[in-house]
Amino acid sequence: MDKTNTMMAKRNPLSRSAGFSLIELMVGVIIAIIGSIVIFQVFAVSENYNRTSVAGSDAQQSGAMGLYSIERDLRTAGFGINDTTFLGCNVLAYNDVRTPTDFNFSLQPVLITQGAGNDATTGVGAASDTITILYGNSSNGLASVQQVQNMASATEDYKVSNRYGFQMGDLFVAAEGG
Q1: 168 three-state secondary structure
Q2: What is the Cα Rg of the chain in Å?
Q3: Residue environment code for 2-21, b if the CB has 16+ CB neighbours within 10 A, otherwise e
Q4: Alpha-carbon distance 142 to 78, whole Å?
Q5: Residues 132-154: pLDDT tens digits?
């Protein structure tokens, strides 16, 4: 018997199966990749669910803030309009600080205008409805006052019966009865 064959015969049969074969290593890598794909898929679905929840929550908060603002303004609607004689009248106005300087508005606390092209029964249309809220901001409150002297020109000062509640820089609405 030659020396090489003798050495092989004396070897322990368990020593040949020590370590991983290439096939076992490849199977392990494939299992790890499949596990990673599953983990990333679960993470992606979870993240989408989280984004949907957060977006819904943000929309709800924005709606609540908008509703609060409208409610606050509606509570003050009509403040400062203490004489109801001219309510509903169209006011032809002028303000030299504003652009355009000439404008008009309806003297009423709340005006809801249907948007252009909207169907009144379904509410569907091209433009949004608008809510116009009118109120004053004088901290003193204001009663109606009468003009006591005719004006010779439009640039002349107003002479009124009582100046209580007027502050420097206030804007006011002057109405002519009749």
Answers
A1: coil
A2: 41
A3: eeeeeeeeeeeeeeeeeeee
A4: 12
A5: 998 887 766 667 788 888 888 87
